[in-house]
Specification:
Elements lengths: L1 E7 L4 E7 L4 E6 L2 H11 L3 E4 L2 H14 L3 H9 L18 E4 L8 H7 L19 H24 L1 H13 L11 H8 L25 H8 L9 E6 L2 E6 L2 E5 L3 E4 L4 E8 L2 H8 L10 H16 L3 H18 L9 H22 L4 E6 L2 E7 L3 H15 L3 E6 L1 E6 L2 E5 L5 E4 L14 H13 L3 H7 L8 E4 L6 E12 L5 E11 L3 E6 L5 E7 L6 E2 L7 E3 L15 H14 L3
Parallel strand pairs: 1-4, 4-5
Antiparallel strand pairs: 1-2, 2-3, 6-7, 7-8, 8-11, 9-14, 10-12, 10-13, 11-12, 14-15, 15-16, 17-20, 18-19, 18-21, 20-23, 21-22
Helix pairs in contact: 2-3, 4-5, 6-11, 7-11, 9-12, 10-11, 12-13, 14-15, 14-16, 15-16
Length: 583
């Protein structure tokens, strides 16, 4: 493997590449011959980068083919075109690629911020219209080297994703060059999809097995042509809970729900096993571009068999294909594109889960429902009858349910909750209470304080006031393409008359051009808001940040917590979020 990153300016380019196995570094500046030599040495190895699938590989190929890399850079970044569209000659430069950037995309600087690393950026403008000075080149090399080192860090922390991609390549005997494809592209290749021209996106129908009972009006809503668009929504009551029904899915939940079961009660999470893949097979909704549906059926059956056998690692590539095939049906760039079948998969899933709710409504209190599962509370003595009715539904619909048992539920909405089991273990979902890691570490002290209170009853103040880890208090924000720069309010500049009268108090600001910032709440009144500016409208405060805050973009390792950190802000935010969970 070789890890690499390009930097492109108007009249200069450079690349830093690191081979961690040979412990060798390459730094090449404006030298095509050196780049060709390095490429020849590693052309049969795996090139790893961050967003290299969309950017760096095309800069590499452009230079080797004699194109101006700045033109390709602007084609991709300014014109927002795909690199492969620039020229078909890029196909002459083969490269085995692996991109470490997560999906959905997150900037490398944001991940560096989460991990507590230095997120200062180069001071050298990328649009500078002259040759760079030696000092500017050296600064850019250092900046680029740092990004390559952190690309290696990200790769190691997300190695399970690489292993999963490699497992797909090995399991289905694909060429190693396919490692650089997205998993949706791999799925299309594995299933032998051949793109078809289809014009029946809105031929909506309902599953022939559905029995909607008192919710028949929902089925009629799906069939009404006036609702055949992706903005249409139906707000309706199901089991006494407000639900939203749409082409993309159904969801409903009791808001601010907080409940601990009495001894005779239980909360059940009832989920459909492999809902979308099963619908594709049982109801014939696999993309019509897949000419041999048996291939997908074999993949699904293998996935379910390995699950039963507890072979998690061996199951992973089969499970991945099952999970991404539905999304590929809605991707216009994928060979499996089939918008009608994608719509029908989602409609069938919703209709059948509503069908089930109709059959068990008198036994349960519905806590929340989603397209592929429900949380319900019921009396323990009613479990046998509930399962009997579910089994009847399973026999009729050919779907299979699994159960998970909980004794307490704390819920903001359908996408934010903590469900607690009798042994104290729990399942959580949502930005406020999800499981954090080094590459997803935003306001971790609030996350921890919420869980400590929910699971153990530990006061919020105790968790936050006792924490001595500076990184736990960080909030990472990133300037989007809609904005041009950042301003930080920094106290007032008073203007006085000769007789000592205050004429005006000017709010001063410090301007920054960086993209990413690590922000902390401050007790210092001179620390104001952090604002994003587009130069046209009034500046807007970054969401989730305090009105009084300070920025620390350096490495947090070993840094003591400044005395001006406003712990009370984090306490108030935690309590506000707990209240949204009904606590």
């Amino acid at each position: 493997m070789i890890f690499f990153d390009f930097e492109v300016f108007v009249r200069d380019w450079l690349v830093v590449a690191i081979d961690p196995i040979k412990q060798k570094e390459y730094v090449i500046v404006n030298n095509k011959d050196e780049l060709q030599t390095m490429y020849n040495e590693y052309k049969n190895d795996i090139w790893v980068g961050y967003n290299c699938r969309n950017y760096d590989q095309y800069i590499l190929k452009a230079i080797l083919l004699g194109f101006d890399p700045k033109q390709v850079n602007d084609y991709i970044i300014v014109k927002k075109r795909k690199g492969w569209e620039f020229t078909t000659m890029f196909n002459k430069i083969p490269i085995i690629l692996y991109d470490t950037m997560p999906n959905p995309p997150v900037s490398l600087k944001t991940l560096e911020g989460f991990a507590g690393y230095n997120i200062h950026e180069t001071s050298v403008p990328f649009d500078i219209d002259r040759r760079l000075t030696r000092k500017e080149i050296e600064e850019t090399i250092e900046y680029c080297r740092y990004d390559v080192q952190n690309t290696i860090n990200v790769f190691l922390k997300r190695k399970n994703e690489f292993d999963s991609q490699m497992a797909l390549v090995k399991t289905f005997n694909l060429p190693l060059a396919h490692l650089g494809k997205t998993q949706a592209q791999l799925a299309a290749f594995i299933l032998g999809a051949k793109r078809k021209k289809l014009n029946d996106e809105w031929n909506i129908r309902l599953p022939h097995t559905a029995q909607l009972g008192k919710y028949k009006h929902i089925g009629n809503w799906f069939l009404n042509p006036s609702n055949h668009n992706y903005e249409a929504k139906l707000e309706t009551l199901i089991c006494g809970v407000e639900h939203t029904v749409a082409l993309g899915g159904v969801h409903g939940s009791r808001r601010k729900y907080s409940y601990k079961c009495k001894p005779h009660e239980v909360i059940l999470d009832i989920d459909v096993d492999q809902l979308y893949p099963t619908l594709m097979i049982v109801y014939g909704l696999l993309s019509r571009a897949v000419e041999e549906p048996e291939r997908f059926k074999n993949v699904l059956e293998t996935s379910l068999r390995l699950k039963r056998e507890g072979k998690k690692k061996e199951r992973e590539p089969y499970k991945r294909i099952c999970n991404i095939t539905y999304g590929a049906e809605g991707d216009a760039m994928n060979a499996m594109y089939d918008p009608l079948h994608r719509n029908l998969v989602c409609v069938f899933g919703q209709v059948l889960i509503i069908d089930l709710l109709d059959k068990i409504e008198d036994l349960i209190e519905l806590i929340q429902s989603n397209t592929d599962g429900i949380f319900v509370k019921l009396n323990r003595r009613d479990i046998p009858e509930l399962k009997r009715r579910v089994e009847e539904w399973e026999a009729r619909t050919s779907l299979k349910m699994s159960y998970d048992e909980f004794t307490a539920m704390y819920q903001k909405d359908v996408n934010n909750y903590v469900a607690v089991r009798e042994d104290g273990s729990y399942h959580s979902k949502g930005a406020y209470v999800k499981e954090l890691n080094d590459l997803d570490y935003d306001l971790p002290i609030v996350n921890a304080a919420m869980k400590e209170y929910i699971l153990k009853g530990i006061p919020v103040e105790q968790t936050i006031n006792s924490c001595q880890d500076f990184r736990m208090f960080q909030k990472i924000v990133k300037l989007s393409a809609k904005y041009k720069w950042v301003e930080h309010e920094r106290g007032y500049n008073p203007s006085w008359t000769k007789r000592g009268r205050l004429i005006e108090n000017y709010l001063t600001t410090t301007k920054f051009d960086n993209k990413a910032y690590r922000v902390f709440a401050s007790t210092d009144e001179n620390d104001g808001k952090l604002l994003k500016c587009d130069g046209v409208r009034n500046p807007a405060k970054f969401g989730g940040t305090a009105d009084h805050c300070f920025v620390f973009n350096g490495n947090l390792d070993g840094v003591e917590i400044p005395s001006k950190l406003d712990r009370s802000w984090y306490i108030a935010l935690t309590k506000e979020r707990l209240e949204q969970f009904g606590l």
